[in-house]
Amino acid sequence: MTTEHFRLQEQPPASVDTGHPSGNHAREATPRTGGRLLIIDDERMARANLARALERGGHESAQAGSGEEGLALLAQQDFDVVITDIAMAGMNGMEVLKAVRSSKPDVEVIMVTGYPMIENAVEAMRLGAFHYLAKPYSLEEARMLVARALEKCRLRQQVAQMRAQLEASGSVPEMVGASPAMCGLRQALMRLAPTDVAVLLQGETGTGKELAARTMHAQSQRARRRFLAVNCGALSPELLESELFGHEQGAFSGAVRRKEGLFEAASGGTLFLDEIGEMPPGMQVKLLRVLQEQNLRRVGGTVDIPVDVRIIAATNRNLKEEVEAGRFRRDLYYRVAVVTQELPPLRSRAEDVPLLARFFLTRLAEQGGAAPLDIDEPALDALRLYPFPGNVRELANILERAAVFCPPGGSIGLAHLPPEVREAQGRGAESVAMVTAAQSTVANAASAHAAPAHALGQPAPLVPLAEMEKQHILHALELAGDNRTLAADMLGISRSSLWRKLREYGV
């Protein structure tokens, strides 16, 4: 890095080299309105000139002549942005980046590189760098990039404050449940929330896909902007196109004025595409173009409009199977399903039913301004045994209907539940009796055959290692709520290794 790149040869080098805000600018009476920057470069003149230019914009800066020195300063002081050269003696910029992301993940890192090393800068962004400056760059380019990085820092802080306020007020969407499946789901959603990655939520009707999408939005850096939802299967192709992309006045019969589409309305926020598997093929093509180009044209329009929207899609179909069957575009699938998250059906987490029941009854009481109704154990047992084809939504409806017929201050019992739930309890009791009898028979048979084996001194049969491994993997998947990425983390293996094992065991 040389001074010519900064166009500041007329300025003398800063007298203070490192460890503290540089030069006389640190003693200016004007209060600082910018951020705190750490500049790491083994070329003294380059870092001094950059520091001086950025301080003129109201920022504070400290300088370090090596990666090791920079990390020592970062451990002692708080900084918003680190600007580091990639090519340095000793610890290089890539190593600095990894250390910063590990120790202070909220600090944004800008990489400085020459054109022969652009591929390194791109790799750095993949590892979490905010962006890079390619030499030779103008000071205006550096100022703008720092301003963008600081804006991201401020947005993150605002989101954190708002999240705390929402949690304190109880306004964060409720993901109710304490089962391993729900704990795994919440953990996965919290990992996905701060990112802009496209997420495909898969699950049966009523499992709470929109609630999961709203939860990710509420916990994201886009939370201050809008969350908009559209059911892709509820509209005709023409209406869906107008709904998503908007239209110009006179674009078609009835278009009496210009309309802004959901993509524009959700700019800076999140767009939830529910039942995306129902989207007609022609609309799939148009949606793919918008996602690829990051701009759209209103129906009847001629101007490209840039859009900045995070996409969360949902379906109750197996979209991979839809792709193989030719009903869903493969290229669109890979756009909307960067991460696929399965939502567990309620029957797989029956232990959450009492918690959900009391949550819904409390919410009904709040809406009606009355004391919450109780629910007795036989009714809860019946609900636990019911398979809930409509999942959580069906449970909420069942309880709302039961509350209508239950007297104020009373307790919901079996008599208040629909016939299909009461029948499920009867079938469940019969099943339990049959299983108990079968277990008893097996145990008796085992004990009858065990004595001769032990008498002969024969060891008990060993379970094959492959079977043990398979069961261990299945247990991890169950705990992770079928989230394979999370299950892989729990098992201490890579996601690709988990996929290979699942194929090997036919899971």
Instruction: Specify the CATH homologous superfamily of the largest domain.
Output: P-loop containing nucleotide triphosphate hydrolases
- The general outline is globular
- Beta percentage is 5-15%
Helix content: 40-55%
Give the low-pLDDT segments.
1-32, 428-460
End-to-end Cα distance, whole Å, is 55 Å
Main sheet overview: 5 strands, parallel
List the helices and strands and how they pair.
Blueprint: E1 36-40, H1 44-55, E2 60-64, H2 67-76, E3 81-85, H3 93-103, E4 108-114, H4 118-126, E5 131-135, H5 139-169, H6 180-192, E6 199-202, H7 209-218, E7 227-231, H8 237-245, E8 246-247, E9 259-260, H9 262-265, E10 270-274, H10 281-293, E11 295-296, E12 305-306, E13 310-315, H11 319-324, H12 330-336, E14 339-342, H13 353-368, E15 374-375, H14 377-385, H15 391-405, E16 411-412, H16 419-455, H17 465-479, H18 484-491, H19 495-504
Parallel strand pairs: 1-2, 1-3, 3-4, 4-5, 6-13, 6-14, 7-10, 10-13, 15-16
Antiparallel strand pairs: 8-9, 11-12
Structure, described:
The chain is about 50% helix and about 10% strand. The strands form five sheets. Strands 2-1-3-4-5 form a five-stranded parallel sheet, sandwiched between helices. It has a five-stranded parallel sheet with strand order 7-10-13-6-14. Strands 8-9 form a two-stranded antiparallel ribbon. With about 500 residues, the protein is of the alpha/beta class. Helix 4 links the parallel strand 4 and strand 5. The chain has four domains: about 160 residues, 3-Layer(aba) Sandwich (Rossmann fold); about 160 residues, Rossmann fold, CATH 3.40.50.300; about 80 residues, Helicase, Ruva Protein, domain 3 (Orthogonal Bundle); about 45 residues, Homeodomain-like (Arc Repressor Mutant, subunit A), CATH 1.10.10. The chain contains 19 helices and 16 strands. Helix 13 crosses helix 15.
